[in-house]
Amino acid sequence: MKTVWFVYIGNNSYRDVVFYAYTDVNKYLAENNIPIRLIFHHPRVRAGENAENMPEKDIILESKPGFTITINTGKGKVVAYPLEGILDVLYGWLVKTRHEVQEIYEMHQIEPDDEIPDTVIGVVSFPLVTRNPYLDFYEKFLGVQKKVSGLNIIAVSVSPFYHPNKLKFSNRIFKAILHELGHAFGLDHCSENCVMNPPSTIEEWDSRVPDFCPKCFLELKRNVEWKENKRDNTSIQRGEEDRESSSKDA
Predict the structure, then answer these.
(1) Is the pLDDT of residue 193 over 60?
(2) Using CA atoms, how far apart are residues 219 and 217, in angstroms rounded to an integer?
(3) How would you classify residue 22: left for phi > 0, otherwise alpha for psi between -120 and 50, otherwise beta?
């Protein structure tokens, strides 16, 4: 099973809607036997009778004062997150958290069922923007992925998907998360009625079926299962090497 950390950055205004989308994505993945799961909580690894009663801690990062930028537009001032800053925050969090979890596993001699996630999806409440280096204006992004030192960093803004109807708002975010997961596991853009077909307008996005087309669906499953098989084979190989090493030492 491939696990992906899911982080929310922003105020509480959209938190419930984002959590609905997160839940629906995991439900979709489970119902379609896709071996990927999003994790919205820090792993709970303590043993003991009180372990089940321990509250889980949602992964919500608060941006520091002055982190946002204000842009003057034709429709007034817009508060946004700098894309580069968000990617740096997510990368730093991922490196730190992977190290902390590894230390906990080693301290308690726990053999995890799955590898520690090397991918994080950061969902942010404000628009994501970056200044064009050649022209004096800001470019907006719905979602961005960046690979840094073997770690996959994904940022998605929910602001462009806003709708006063929470169900519609959540459905838009649901499709956006599936879209970014598709990219994370090797899918390119698609021209079919599919979440991998990027929209030109929000109306187009609403018309997209909340699903992968058959071609993208099969490719996604192949890509994920190939990674899982590669991991399992590596684990078996390591086990054999350890046994051979023990025999030689004996």
Answers:
(1) yes
(2) 5
(3) alpha
SS3 state of residue 4: strand
**pLDDT at position 141:** 56
DSSP 89-109: HHHHHHHHHHHHHHHHHHHTT
Residue spans of beta strands (DSSP E) within the chain: 2-9, 36-39, 60-61, 69-73, 76-82, 119-124, 128-131, 138-141, 143-148, 151-157
Geometric angle at alpha carbon 19, from 104 and 156, rounded to 5°? 85
Three-state DSSP class for 70?
Answer: strand
pTM of the model: 0.78
| Secondary structure (3-state) at 16 | helix
CA distance 21 to 131: 30
Q: What is the CATH number that goes with domain 2-249?
A: 3.40.390.10
Mean pLDDT throughout 171-190? 95
Nearest C-alpha neighbor of 3 from the set 33, 40, 51, 32 = 40
The per-residue pLDDT for range 83-102, each reduced to its tens digit, is 888 888 899 989 988 888 88
Question: For the stretch 113-137, what's the b/e string if a residue is b when 16 or more beta carbons lie within 10 angstroms of its beta carbon?
Answer: eeebbbbbbbbbbbbbbbeeeeeee
In three-state secondary structure terms, 114 is coil
